[in-house]
Amino acid sequence: MSLxxxxxxxxxxxxxxxxxxxxLERAQTSLILRETVESLQVDLESARAAAISTGRRTxxxxxxxxxxxxxxxxxxxxxxxxxxxxxxxEMRFHPDGSASGTPWVVAGAGRTVAVAxxxxxxxxxxxxx
Length: 129
Hints:
Number of helices: 1
Helix content: 40-55%
Oligomer: single chain
CATH topology: minor pseudopilin epsh fold
Distance between the termini: 52 Å
Shape: rod-shaped
Low-confidence stretches: none
Largest sheet: 5 strands, antiparallel
CATH architecture: 3-Layer(bab) Sandwich
Number of domains: 1
Structural class: alpha+beta
Strand content: 25-35%
Number of strands: 9
Radius of gyration: 21 Å
CATH class: Alpha Beta
């Protein structure tokens, strides 16, 4: 193989690598979005369990203009870079297991997932939009 052939091969490999990079980056952000939604669900389930076990209502509320949310223990879960939260208000769990609050929408990588609670039962559900 001549030097010219090696350079052409290297240029083609580099070009193909740059074409695949945006898709790889989008796939990574999509994975981070999924993990963020799962973490939110776990935090909601923990808040519901805490409300039932302590006999006191528990709340999660958005903070930082959609960059995170405060958990019942006062800690804040910051969202990863590229992920945002759209929430009109808090999600609240009552001692009887019921809940109130508007759906929260988690967005990133051109995708959105709504996370909400069923008022009567406190069940948590998600829906990709």
